[in-house]
Amino acid sequence: MSKPSFEEGLLQYVEELKDESEMTEKQRNILRASIKLFAEKGFHASSTSEIAKEAGVAEGTIFRHYKSKKDILLAVVAPVLLKVAAPFILKDVREIFKEESKKPFTEVMTQLYRNRLELVTANEKHVRIMLQEAFFHDEIREALIASVFADVKEMARKLIEAKVDVGELRPLPTQAVFRAVLSSMIGLVLFRQVLDPDEFGNYSDEEQIALSVDILMNGIANRE
Amino acid sequence: MSKPSFEEGLLQYVEELKDESEMTEKQRNILRASIKLFAEKGFHASSTSEIAKEAGVAEGTIFRHYKSKKDILLAVVAPVLLKVAAPFILKDVREIFKEESKKPFTEVMTQLYRNRLELVTANEKHVRIMLQEAFFHDEIREALIASVFADVKEMARKLIEAKVDVGELRPLPTQAVFRAVLSSMIGLVLFRQVLDPDEFGNYSDEEQIALSVDILMNGIANRE
DNA sequence: ACAAAAAGCGAGTGATCACTCACTTTTACT
DNA sequence: AGTAAAAGTGAGTGATCACTCGCTTTTTGT
């Protein structure tokens, strides 16, 4: 599992801006600067004067190309989300899901949980900022759902239905199974990072993952 | 299950401010106004001039009593959280958990999920603002965890351990079971309200709850 | 009753913000 | 080369913000 950072992906994308479109160099600089600052400190915390400074451009130039600050955000978020964030978030998931039929579902889940825990740990700041922005701006939330959630849902759907067909999973509504999987994963991250890091530490990450997967697969009820 | 709104609780608390402490009437008005505005629009969106206006007080008076705007927040949040929000959030949970030994765990969970779904639906705005503030201010997040999460965790611990003792639940680490329960609940709410409301609507709330409880109890794996 | 302290006041301060506009420079087209 | 359009500029605008300060009013203790 390779580990190119989100930052690298961003920088690379920013360089690629050079080749395409009929943008002025200055306009590209504005986008570059905005991407950098928004990713670093979020939208609200980045002022237009900062963006201008970072871009080496007069503040008036910004508003020559974008009619408002929010306009920059929208111009920046869609392509970045689609070309950098979504691929970055989904890359490993796609690999893990690829060999669906070979591995037992339990193993796929274990790998997935381990991988997601790593991803969130390594990119805590960016995750935080993304959630924050998704919280505030409907457009970003919807774009995130459309570009990331929709994909992962489709991938999961295929895997889950295949596993139901071979009798490895119960024939429940796919949507409910997907929800259970994602909920369990979100809960794992949430408990470790936010809600209860102390008690979480009573077991190693591997043990916690094993517990989560065990419960996801077999439930918490005792079978008489 | 009674339904006093969060708003009512807030207003009642605000009235009770009258009786206690050595506060000036104006100072109480400032707290009242702050509580109202913060609950309505959040901390950042409420300006000190607004608070002053709402409180019927000069802006200078605010800073006579509180050395900064954040100071008001901290003075307001701890007691409100402890005396209004936490009881409000936990009230029904406590009732549902009360008759622990009588009802099967499945039934308790079903009631709990149903109740939480109702609570979030009926108080969407306040939930949103609380999460938003918890996101931004470490102090609030920690206060929420200490006053709400800690309580619910303790209540759940007792119930879970009792149910493990009578053989209704598997002898897993309590903490992992609690995480599974809470994750499933958060997931239910998250999918319905944010992530996938369309597909969620394919089943009724009751059906979705039943599915979540079923999976929580029995897992998603097929038992050969 | 009187003075000191506390409470209250509101115009004012300086900072920052997104955004504008009159103007200059560069680019593109003929 | 000449010109019109596009790009770029930066001082300026008005709004808003949290917060201050010199002053007046009210409360308190004796």
Tags for this entry?
homodimer, about 220 residues, mainly alpha, Tetracycline Repressor, domain 2, 11 helices, about 75% helix, DNA-binding
What is the fold's blueprint, element by element?
2 copies of one chain form a homodimer.
Chain A: H1 6-16, H2 25-41, H3 48-55, H4 59-65, H5 69-98, H6 105-122, H7 124-136, H8 138-165, H9 174-195, H10 197-200, H11 205-218
Helix pairs in contact in A: 1-5, 2-3, 2-5, 2-7, 5-6, 5-8, 6-9, 6-11, 7-8, 8-9, 9-11
Chain A binds a DNA duplex (30 and 30 nucleotides) through helix 4.
Can you give me a brief rundown of this structure?
By secondary structure, chain A is mostly helical. In chain A, 77% of the residues lie in helices and 0% in strands.
Biggest sheet character of chain A: none
| Rg of chain A (C-alpha, Å) | 21 Å
Low-confidence stretches of chain A: none
CATH architecture of chain A: Orthogonal Bundle
Q: Find the biggest chain interface.
A: A-B, 51 and 51 residues
The CATH topology annotation of chain A reads as: Tetracycline Repressor, domain 2
CATH superfamily of chain A: Tetracycline Repressor, domain 2
Mean pLDDT of chain A: 93
Helix content of chain A: over 70%
How many beta-strand segments of chain A? 0
Quaternary organisation of the protein chains: homodimer
Q: How does the overall form of chain A come out from the CA principal axes? A: elongated
Through-space gap between termini of chain A: 41 Å
Write the H/E string of chain A, N to C: HHHHHHHHHHH
